[in-house]
Backbone:
């Protein structure tokens, strides 16, 4: 994917001014085709993370599928999202991708009103039988590998504290945090992962402040599950290490102090979904793609890439081997969470060789056509210092 934004400290400060800015609607058209695809974003396309990665997917779709695309950015979750989605449906878009967890219920509501429009919601768990699906990828696999890198770095630095800046305490975020912690335990069994919850997907100032708090508490490596490069920049400024998220761009501002980034590659999946819809073969489903689909990636370990200089040489062969197995479908998200597992209070979560179900991973219950979770993702694995706040 072509990367067009570089985020230094000045860009980070500029990004913070985008929070709460006016909503924007941008449309591009491929010649000779009136098929229309729209995207709804929770943040600005210049966030350097989640929304930026989705917009790269939109541009890929436009280039490779020859369709007209529209995007709206900085849309708040809830009533504002419902209004934005409904407006796009009224403009006769054929497909609408909504790309934030909090857009799930608004998307469901609008899908009922516009049965001829296809709706695909990213990260949620609701769907219907006619025109509404959900989409996600196994980022937990990449976060597991990133944890192995973080643990190896902390061990080499003779440190035992790793910091995590996380957005909301929902199952999706908890799942990725737990996967990271399990990876850390492979290379640093006695490391501790300290958390700071910021209750926002994109808030550059608060993300950076949370990272600084963790650094002051002795963290050697900072990983982020939020959307800006702020935590990675804060780690670099303190002479420590960062691990970015969402976009290949996440390390661009401080590459010498960024170990890796776990990032999304939405374009090919978007293009395939649109192809199926145009051919009439698409069906609403719970789409959850594994690493072998290419939807998730680890910076420095994809084809043509080189591991960052800060990644300890001792762990590189292990990462490359397991990464290759993931890409072949030989090691999946269910292997990441294979037992025995204990939570951070010492309670057994899974016995030896037992695995979680997909419903366990997503913390799902009382949904039509899906079994209830039994080991629901509402716990933190051993090694994590902190709790899950009530919502």
Residues:
């Amino acid at each position: 994917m072509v990367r067009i934004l570089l985020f230094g400290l000045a860009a980070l400060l500029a990004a913070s001014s985008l929070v709460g800015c006016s909503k924007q609607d941008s449309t591009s058209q491929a010649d000779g085709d009136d098929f229309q695809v729209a995207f709804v974003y929770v943040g600005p396309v210049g966030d350097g993370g989640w929304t930026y990665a989705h917009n790269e997917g939109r541009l890929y779709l436009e280039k490779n599928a020859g369709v007209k695309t529209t995007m709206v950015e900085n849309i708040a979750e809830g009533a504002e999202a419902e209004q934005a989605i409904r407006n796009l449906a009224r403009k006769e878009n054929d497909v609408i991708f909504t790309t934030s967890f909090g857009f799930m219920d608004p998307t469901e509501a609008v899908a009922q009103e516009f049965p001829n429009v296809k709706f695909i919601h990213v990260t949620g768990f609701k769907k219907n039988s006619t025109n509404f699906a959900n989409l996600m990828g196994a980022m937990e696999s990449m976060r597991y590998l990133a944890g192995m890198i973080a643990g190896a770095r902390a061990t080499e630095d003779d440190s035992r504290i790793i910091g995590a800046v996380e957005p909301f305490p929902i199952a999706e975020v908890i799942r990725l945090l737990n996967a990271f912690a399990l990876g850390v335990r492979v290379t640093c069994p006695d490391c501790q992962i300290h958390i700071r919850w910021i209750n926002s997907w994109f808030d550059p100032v608060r993300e950076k402040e949370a990272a600084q708090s963790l650094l002051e508490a002795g963290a050697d490596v900072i990983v982020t599950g939020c959307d800006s490069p702020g935590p990675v920049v804060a780690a670099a400024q303190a002479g420590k290490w960062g691990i970015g998220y969402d976009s290949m761009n996440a390390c661009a501002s401080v590459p010498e102090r960024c170990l890796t980034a776990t990032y999304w590659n939405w374009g090919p999946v978007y293009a395939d979904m649109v192809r199926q819809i145009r051919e009439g073969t698409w069906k609403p489903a719970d789409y959850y793609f594994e690493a072998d689909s290419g939807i998730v990636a680890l910076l420095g370990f994809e084809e043509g890439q080189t591991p960052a200089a800060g990644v300890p040489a001792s762990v590189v062969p292990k990462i490359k081997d397991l990464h290759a197995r993931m890409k072949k479908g030989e090691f999946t998200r269910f292997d990441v969470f294979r037992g025995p597992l204990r939570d951070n209070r010492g309670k057994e979560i899974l016995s030896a060789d037992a695995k979680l179900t997909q419903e366990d991973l997503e913390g799902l219950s009382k949904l039509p056509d899906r079994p209830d979770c039994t080991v629901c993702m509402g716990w933190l694995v051993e090694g994590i210092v902190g709790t899950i706040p009530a919502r």
In short: The longest strand covers residues 258-264. Confidence is low (pLDDT under 50) at residues 1-22. The chain is about 35% helix and 20% strand. The chain has two domains: 19-137+265-295, 139-263+300-385.
